[in-house]
Design brief:
10 strands; 27% strand; alpha+beta; 10-stranded antiparallel beta sheet
């Protein structure tokens, strides 16, 4: 993997603006720091310019000559980042981090790590190592291998799992085998430790006209660490109980990431051919 850039959110906004995308930068800024007056926005960019000069990412001589203050390489990177059509996004609520991997026809894919919504790190990762990036991102401490166990819920029951106050009513509504009840109780204990929150990896379509925010979730897989392994939760709409919950070990978790990235890549390739 090749490091490209480490910057703050304000530095990223100024780089995007200077690379020829001022409207995009303003929209990103409203998402990151809220709506600002024109005067405040200009003040933010002006203050940030000094930081980029210190990092030698901003060429004042070129700027004085009416040229872009950014290197050609940096401009190409920003353009690639802004114009990506599809991405895989992984959330890590406990550490307040996100990993976003932009699809690319090239061998190296652009990885974007967001930390506390303030710090941003970009690097290029070979396509074959993308699944490993997600594994490193979570750093789950898992048993090497275990007997895979699973059960199913309907969509409504799964939604109620994230609301602790509905747990008693949910249990009364379920009809599970003895083995499934053991798994359900394990899941509830794991959810309680995670503050009743699942993280997820999702496939995103970016710049979608049909979405208000320009983002459409094409596919999503939830997961949750456990003392017994890691829960993988995915939707299987062809089944009566559409939510499939599986408790797996380290090897199965790594294999599921490989499969998810591979299937997402096939989906994106198909969409691009159709387009």
């Amino acid at each position: 993997m090749r490091p490209l850039l480490q910057c703050t959110r304000e530095e990223l906004l100024l780089l995007v603006s200077a690379a020829g995308f001022p409207d995009v930068a303003r929209g990103m800024g409203e998402e990151m720091i809220g709506a600002q007056s024109d005067e405040t926005w200009e003040a933010v960019l002006l203050a940030t310019r000094s930081q980029l000069i210190l990092k030698q990412l901003w060429d004042t001589q070129k700027e004085m000559n009416g040229q872009s203050p950014l290197t050609e390489e940096l401009q190409q990177f920003i353009q690639r980042y802004i114009e990506a059509k599809y991405a895989l996004r992984a959330t890590n609520a406990k550490q307040d981090k996100r990993l976003i991997v932009h699809f690319s026809p090239e061998d190296e894919w652009l990885c974007h790590i967001q930390i506390n919504e303030i710090l941003h790190e970009f690097l290029l990762v070979p396509q074959a190592q993308v699944a490993s990036m997600f594994n490193l991102f979570y750093e789950f401490k898992l048993p090497t291998a275990k007997q895979t166990t699973s059960f199913r819920l309907n969509d409504r029951s799964f939604d109620r799992l994230s609301r602790r106050e509905e747990l008693s009513a949910l249990k009364e509504s379920l009809s599970l085998t003895n083995e499934e009840w053991l798994l359900f109780d394990q899941l509830v204990m794991d959810l309680e430790k995670a503050d009743w929150h699942f993280d997820n990896i999702s496939l995103l379509q970016l710049h979608a006209k049909e979405a208000d925010d320009g983002v459409v979730i094409e596919e999503i897989q939830f997961h949750l660490p456990s003392a017994e392994g890691v829960w993988i939760v995915r939707y299987e709409p062809w089944e009566e109980n559409v939510v499939f919950l599986q408790l797996v070990g380290e090897e199965e978790w790594a294999a599921s990431l490989e499969q998810y990235v591979r299937e997402a890549g096939l989906f994106v390739s198909k969409q691009q051919v159709q387009a």
